[in-house]
Specification:
CATH class of the largest domain: Alpha Beta
Number of helices: 15
Strand content: 15-25%
Helix content: 25-40%
Radius of gyration: 21 Å
């Protein structure tokens, strides 16, 4: 099987830190923060991951005051399950040197209250800035974490993994793991597109038959839970000044990066969750792409594609674009979809339409998980793609039932095979 969208370094780190994935509410979240703070030395930065406040009865993040009280002696930051929002206490904001009203690139928002004070909620680049203020793992810790991530995916049955937004050290580090005989699968790397040419020039230092540079990664929008995914229609209850989320990428930069990747014989994988972002990326590919469908290296990918306007569905096949989807996100996004996008619910994960338009599971339509955003178990994506709802819930809870596919088609989307084009 192929895991087509993973983050190995983040997965390795997440396996070694407290998780909020199973939290049932705000009180339980704060209990876990207190437990983590009690177990840490004073002043030590503590991080917890996989918070999903939209699924809690309170449907809100802990406030900065909540976190100050739960972690009075330690900088503390909680990362959302989708890695596009976080909540932090005062000490963590200070550790990241974030000032009131400061603009944090890329597209970072430090959410403030009516009095102009930080609430503790951080979006996009601001979330990454505070999360990244914690000390980096040592080289030994990094290698152990990577091995743990690889072993975790291998145990789930994966023989190929695609790492999206790969760090500059990841290729050399994986090469060292391979030389030591501990690389259990083939790995395809997608560094940030701005670094693609430099990584291409240096790839001979670490590439092998099982470890290779596949392309570059870009972000066109945010996520549904943070209401930063770019939509063609307004959200219900949008973020202030972002009624339809936001495109986070200059069109000229996208076209330049697409052409540069093709020149190297590679492709881009572009994050686009909302239907406006998907159209934005398709338009750029249509303008720039060489459209050499027989050459898999130049077949650009759009990642996530959680909502696609009906008019854009056939364009994937027409343009030779790979649709890289993580159906398991539907299981995590149920509350956010009903709260923010009830008017778009029938367009969520248009898998049936994509296949009927000509995409082949495993070739043009490929599945992954975005681990550690959600867990990598392929059973979750099969559940979402086939049954369109969480396990154990009635058929009436299904989202976009007409877009369901067969279990055979869902399993095929995890299976790489040569393209006939």
């Amino acid at each position: 099987m192929r895991e087509a969208h993973a983050h190995l370094a983040s997965l390795g780190q997440s396996l070694a830190m407290p998780s909020l994935e199973s939290c049932r509410g705000l009180a339980e979240c704060l209990d876990r923060v207190r437990a983590a703070a009690a177990a840490a030395a004073p002043g030590t930065f503590i991080r917890l991951h996989s918070a999903r406040p939209e699924g809690w009865p309170e449907a809100r993040w802990p406030s900065i005051g909540d976190l100050d009280a739960a972690s009075p002696d330690n900088p503390c930051v909680l990362m959302s399950f989708d890695h596009h929002a976080a909540a932090a206490n005062t000490a963590a904001l200070a550790a990241a040197a974030i000032a009131h009203g400061q603009c944090i690139e890329p597209n970072g928002v430090v959410v403030i209250d009516a009095a102009g004070r930080p609430t503790g909620l951080l979006l996009e680049g601001a979330a990454y800035a505070v999360w990244g203020a914690a000390p980096e793992p040592t080289p030994t810790e990094r290698r152990l974490q990577l091995r743990a991530a690889l072993d975790h995916l291998h145990a789930l049955g994966f023989s190929e993994v695609h790492d999206l937004h790969s760090q500059d050290w990841l290729g050399p580090e994986l090469a060292a793991i391979e030389r030591a005989g501990h690389l259990p699968m083939s790995v395809h790397l997608y560094p940030p597109a701005a670094r693609l040419e430099a990584d291409f020039a240096a790839r001979s230092d670490w590439e092998s038959s099982r470890l290779r540079l596949a392309g570059g990664k870009l972000f066109a929008d945010g996520t549904l839970n943070s209401r930063t995914a770019a939509m063609l229609a307004d959200y219900c209850d949008p973020m202030p000044d972002m009624p339809r989320g936001q495109i986070m990428l200059d069109g000229a930069v996208l076209r330049e990066r697409l052409a540069a990747a093709e020149h190297l014989g590679l492709h881009l994988a572009v994050h686009a969750i909302g239907d406006a972002a998907v159209r934005f990326v398709l338009d750029a590919i249509d303008e720039v792409s060489l459209r050499r469908r027989a050459d898999m290296a130049r077949r650009h990918r759009i990642e996530h594609c959680e909502l696609i306007d009906a008019a854009d569905v056939p364009r994937f096949s027409q343009l030779g674009v790979v649709c890289s989807v993580q159906p398991c996100h539907l299981l995590s996004d149920v509350e956010a979809l009903h709260r923010y996008l009830p008017h778009c619910i029938d367009r969520v994960l248009s898998l049936r339409e994509l296949i009927d338009s000509g995409l082949r599971p495993g070739d043009d339509l490929i599945f992954g998980s975005d681990v550690p955003i959600v867990r990598a178990d392929p059973a979750d994506s099969i559940q979402a793609a086939v049954h369109r709802r969480r396990a154990g819930t009635p058929e009436s809870d299904a989202i976009a039932w007409s877009q369901r596919i067969s279990e055979h088609e869902a399993r095929a989307a995890f299976t790489p095979h040569p393209s006939p084009h």
